[in-house]
Amino acid sequence: MNWLSKMFSSSIGQKFIMSITGLFLISFLVVHCFLNALIFLNDGGRVFNMGAKFMSTNPVIRIVEIVLFAGLLLHIIRAFILMNLNNKSRPIKYAVTNGKANSKWYSRSMGLLGTLLLLFLIIHLRHFWVPTKIALFSGNEHNSFEELKEIFSNPIFVAIYELGVISLFYHLMHGFQSAFQTLGLNHSKYTPFIQTCGKLYSFIIPFIFALMPLAIFMGFIK
Amino acid sequence: MSGNMNITLKVWRQKNSNAKGELAEYKVGDVSPDMSFLEMFDVLNERLVSENNEPIAFDHDCREGICGMCSMFINGRPHGPKEGITTCQLHMRSFKDGDTIVVEPWRAQAFPVIKDLIVDRTAFDRIIAAGGYISVNTGNAQDANNIAISKDNADEAFAAAACIGCGACVAACKNASAMLFVSAKVSQLALLPQGQPEKQTRVLSMVAQMDAEGFGACTNTGACEAECPKGISLKNIARMNREYLGAQLCSEKM
Question: Which of A18, A147, B62, B67 is most buried, by the most CB atoms less than 10 A from its CB?
């Protein structure tokens, strides 16, 4: 298995891990977004809570959840290892750089955007994931919808979530198409399609997420 | 050749690879807008020599944009503000009278500064030596068109082979990654029938050498492609990634 460890410790192999886990997290976000969007049915959280209950009790979802956390951790840990490697490749920095002449700021700031997302994620998991787990293991009934309304009645939390969503937007704007390039998928036939999909995805998913805290805070969702 | 431009230069001066360098300021007067950037340095150096000062060491050779030697990082960009050219093809008319121009060497762990603006780019040579060639038997050369090559492949291989190994990709990359250079060298042979027998070992060895030299990993910012004087495409990096992952999975080499 020497070749396998060699492959995954090489620069291209490490990028391959970032790409695969990134695409996996992108697919997860679709499910997460559309399940949460059930609050827009505005039925007092009835269908939303059914979805939440299914996600927290179904045994298949339990296993997928473990895979999700594994993918997330791989993505985060590998990102910090790569950031360290990339920093070391230029020990003496330039006095003057003009990055905007050759690339997008968010493409150059994936590490920063990812770190912001990680901080957001810690707050986010503390808000919603931890209470669900506590309720599950203590056998108490848990109303996710009421919790959602309570948290988003606080304008500070609404602001934090909106900032998290903006970080997500820029992270995806680079990450989506970059993942395909890393896998070696760059061709005049389908690369323009991938890039358009990437931009649409990066806008639509964070936009729907962004509406949720606002809609609850402004009292549209009852 | 003299003109009426006055330029202030801030140039990186460093005695040798162990010394600590710093930016030094020089006023250069009577600069002609038709001078190349390197000719402006020649004028400054002649003055420095006549004043018994150490001239600024910088790399240059052909001065027509094909050797890849000139390697200045000018106002935050490799080879200066224009696209698709090397420093020797940059002219003073691209600047304004009274401008301050900051000139630094390529910055990368794998490109240590030898003196002033000259860096050691032999890391690139070692990557080529690791596999960027084809092995051929000695004997008579075969007929020129003996091996059929499609026009599309020939064109693409030629576009990759236009890489002059100047290192602007490394200099521009926020990670000092050499992937555009290595991918061009992998591609020019992977696209041709002569490159097929050593295709897998080539990409494995060259990438291993690239990593060993201390270049960073690619984050697909596209800065390398934008700054490349020869317009080498990011498609080559995608091709190298394909070749590498494929070779890791399929080659007999453990």
Answer: A18
